[in-house]
Write a structure and sequence with these properties.
The complex is a heterodimer of chains A (311) and B (495). In chain A, 29% of the residues lie in helices and 26% in strands. Chain A is built from 9 helices and 16 strands. Chain A has a 7-stranded mixed β-sheet, sandwiched between helices. In chain A, 52% of the residues are buried. Chain B has 495 residues and is of the alpha/beta class. Chain B has 17 helices and 16 strands. Chain B has a 5-stranded parallel β-sheet with strand order 3-2-1-4-14. Chain B is globular. Classes of the chains: A alpha/beta (311), B alpha/beta (495). At the A-B interface, helix 1, strand 7, helix 8 and helix 9 of A face helix 12 of B.
Chain lengths: 311, 495
């Protein structure tokens, strides 16, 4: 191994999908070689930063890069939104973590992505397509202006059902409505894979349960190390306790205790909110000194119970 | 020449080490034990009889020339003392703090037969701290060979193995999943017992003898053990990934938000520096904290909670004080700082506050029955003894299981409990791959992990055909080279 092969975590592309959603393409040839659909990384923006898990949205072996799609919701992700430009570096990025999603021999699959889950469902849809499956994509956004990667999905899906809350693009309604349509049209769906906010994945699992269709969901609880050492990411799967970082992140959606997951995601909500507010105030102070700088609006942190449609 | 020392002429009392007062230290993260100053070190060095049979050397897992370095301290040649220690041990400041000397070198000290033994650990720490302060490092003139060694995990086992292999002339790369090297010395042991700066200084010394550290590297997932051997060109691999995977109690309420493992609490505080406002990582702050378990990790977790500002910290343990696995000194320190111990008490449920948090615990009294497999008397529940206990945070420090990542990603043979199976020489089922420390034995101590790292290094040298004199009799030479000089170290003359 050449000393240069391990990355400096340089950001080679930055793309903004909306006011809150942005894409970072990070150079890491070794990880691009190793990454498989369903895996995630842990990122530290700077030396004093926290470690945050982010699902790998794409990997490009020839370019030697890992793509992450980030939603600016808390202090860290909003700070990254300001600081992470092309040519800058992350302090740390470790992965690929977690057990890769089993791209099974299913013949017909539905890949569901809602909000932030749209990006990480992409490698799975592509993986299934490459394995020869008939792929139905179901994507959910709040409104038309937040839609991204529609062309990427069209390229690897046999059918694509786009859903928006306000009906400004595609179907009006939630992704669960899209799933219902797919099930009505195809009686032979083998598998559903859903990634998105917990409440959305819960809805997807409930939509498929009566039809007894195997449903995998990708869980993203709070983590520190991501290597099975801290136990912070423990989740209830049936009557067992599992660690999402090393036993997952994919689990059988029909067995996941989503209410427990949502409660555990709220562990630091108060501290997080205070940190985001402090950071915002700090930015405003800087803005006063520099009238040219754009004002920073404080976003309401998403509550995991909310039906976040993101984008 | 001074008159020969005898047991009657040496200072009779062991030189005490100054400590921060319990009330003061319970509110800060500075070291509890302050270390010897020069006067104290000289006085304690005077207590060593420099006896000819040197039982302490045999009592040391790595065979440090203990009378040799103490003699140098006595001569006020502290650099010389460091040179003696560095011949066998590059981690003096760490070992001086965390070795259980009372069961090793100090247990067999000749002075200890009639008085308190010489405080060897404190003297070692004195020398190690002086070396860090003065920036001493002995870069051995290493005759490089072409062997490349990959080490997985930068904790005590990996560090000890890396030091020995680098001194034997190999090119050593240590892989660490976290963003900083040091393993449990960094994320686990709190600063008031082992400051992170001390660990960093020791790691810097390893870098100076040529060891490369690659952080942010999750072996198993970024590349596998097989790939290290087949594609990345490592002639041998040592796996020292530790035990990890914390045990949960398995009682109702386990997943409540006020419940966390000691590993999580300690990592947030020690490695991620959550206690410092300049760092972003949050940490849960309990007012009344119950820590379940009574090992060294439990003691660390309790004392951290106290320093983070908890009003009350309880230790809840199902056996009695006599069976408690923590070092007596740690229990004593915790008690001094105001930790309340509840022996023979076991939680049966964590109680919900209705908002996803903890309002308390339901506990049961225990009595001691017949000895179990561990030889300790088995705790038996006392019927009808249930009672409730107020607490808003519960920390589990009840041990760990094997980390599954290496098992998931390699063909290495594991034992029934999921730890890596090795033979006597720490060789695994894959040729050229060795393993040691907690990932082989299950949770143990820092010095045992270091010992395993060094044992593996000996086996690796044998596997690679690197000659190792392995402790020949003193004075024995081969081609004029003293075989007592371990690990082929060639020290430059002290400056």
């Amino acid at each position: 191994m050449d000393p240069g092969e391990l990355s400096r975590f340089e950001i080679v592309t930055r793309q903004d999908f909306s006011d809150v959603t942005y894409l970072l393409e990070v150079r890491h040839p070794l990880m691009a070689k190793a990454a498989k659909p369903g895996q995630f990384v842990i990122v530290m923006a700077h030396e004093h930063g926290e470690r945050i898990p982010l699902t790998i949205a794409d990997f490009d072996r020839s370019r030697g890069t890992i793509t992450l799609v980030v939603q600016a919701v808390g202090k860290t992700t909003r700070e990254m939104q300001q600081a992470c430009r092309k040519g800058t570096t992350l302090h740390a990025m470790v992965g690929p973590m977690g057990i890769p999603s089993p791209i099974s021999g299913a013949k017909k699959v539905v890949c569901v992505g809602g909000g932030l889950g749209v990006a990480p469902i992409f490698p799975q849809a592509r993986g299934f397509k490459e394995a020869g499956a008939y792929v139905i994509g179901v994507l959910g956004f709040r409104t038309k202006s937040l839609v991204f990667w529609e062309d990427k999905f069209r390229a690897c899906c046999d059918e694509l059902i786009l859903c928006t809350d306000d009906g400004s693009a595609g179907l009006k309604g939630l992704v669960t409505e899209g799933i219902r349509r797919a099930i009505d049209k195809h009686a032979d769906i083998d598998e559903v894979v859903a990634i998105g906010p917990p409440v959305m994945m819960k809805g997807c699992a409930e939509a498929t349960r009566p039809h007894k269709i195997k449903t995998l969901v990708s869980l993203n609880p709070i983590m520190v190390d991501g290597t099975g050492m801290c136990g912070g990411c423990r989740v209830k799967i049936g009557d067992q306790v599992k660690f999402a970082c090393v036993d997952g992140p994919d689990f059988d959606g029909h067995l996941v205790d989503f209410d427990d997951l949502m409660t555990r995601l709220r562990r630091y909500t108060q501290v997080e909110r205070a940190a985001a507010e402090r950071w915002s105030a700090h930015c405003r102070m800087k803005d006063l000194a520099d009238p040219a700088a754009p004002a920073v609006e404080l976003l309401e942190l998403p509550d995991p119970f909310d039906d976040v449609k993101g984008g | 020449m001074a008159k020969k020392k005898t047991i009657r002429t040496i200072p009779q009392e062991r030189t005490p080490m100054r400590e921060q007062a319990p009330q003061a230290r319970a509110k800060n993260f500075d070291e509890v034990a302050c270390g010897y100053d020069v006067t104290e070190a000289l006085r304690e060095a005077e207590r060593c009889l420099l006896c000819p049979d040197e039982p302490c050397v045999a009592g040391c897992p790595v065979g440090i020339d203990i009378p040799g370095f103490i003699r140098k301290i006595g001569e006020k040649n502290f650099r010389g003392a460091y040179d003696v220690i560095a011949e066998t041990n590059l981690l003096a400041a760490v070992c001086g703090r965390v070795c259980p000397q009372e069961t090793q070198c100090e247990e067999v000290c000749t002075v200890g037969e009639s008085l308190e033994p010489v405080a060897i650990g404190r003297l070692e720490r004195f020398v190690g701290d002086a070396a860090i302060r003065e920036g001493w490092v002995n870069v051995p003139q290493i005759e490089a060979n072409d062997f490349r060694i990959g080490i997985v995990g930068s904790g005590p086992a990996g560090m000890a193995c890396a030091a020995d292999m680098a001194k034997a002339g190999c090119e050593v790369t240590v892989f660490e999943a976290f963003h900083q090297p040091g393993g449990v010395l960094k994320y686990g042991i709190p600063d008031f017992r082992l400051p992170n700066e001390v660990v960093d200084a020791e790691i810097e010394n390893l870098r100076k003898i040529g060891v490369r550290f690659e952080c942010n590297t999750l072996v198993g997932r970024l590349f596998t053990i097989e790939q290290m051997v087949d594609e990345l060109g490592f002639h041998t691999v040592f796996i020292g990934t530790g035990a990890g995977y914390p045990t949960m109690l398995g009682v109702p309420g386990d997943s409540l938000n006020g419940v966390l493992s000691a590993n999580e609490l300690l990592t947030r505080c020690n490695l991620m520096r959550a206690r410092d406002a300049a760092f972003d990582t949050p940490i849960p702050l309990g007012r009344r904290v119950a820590v379940i378990g009574a090992g060294n990790t439990a003691m660390d977790a309790m004392r951290v909670c106290l320093r983070l500002g908890a009003e009350k910290v309880y230790c809840v343990y199902r056996r009695s004080r006599a069976e408690c696995p923590a070092r007596a000194e740690e229990v004593h320190h915790a008690e001094e700082e105001g930790i309340e111990f509840h022996w023979l008490t076991a939680p049966v449920a964590i109680l919900d506050d209705g908002k996803g948090g903890v309002r308390g615990m339901r506990c049961m009294r225990m009595a001691l029955g017949e000895p179990d497999a561990s030889g300790r008397r088995r705790p038996v529940p006392v019927a009808g003894s249930e009672f409730d206990f107020d607490a808003d945070q519960v920390v589990y420090a009840i041990g760990t299981n094997a980390n599954p990542i290496i098992g998931q990603t390699s063909r290495l043979k594991l034992d029934k409990r999921g730890y890596i199976a090795t033979d006597e020489s720490l060789a695994t089922s894959m040729p050229g791959v060795f393993a040691g420390g907690d990932i082989v034995t299950g949770a143990a101590t820092v010095i045992e992990a270091m010992g395993a790292g060094r044992k593996a290094a000996r086996s690796i040298k044998a596997y690679l055909g690197l000659r190792d004199p392995a402790r020949p009799a003193a004075g024995q030479t081969l081609f004029g080279i003293d075989l007592g000089e371990r690990n082929f170290v060639r020290l430059r003359a002290a400056a």
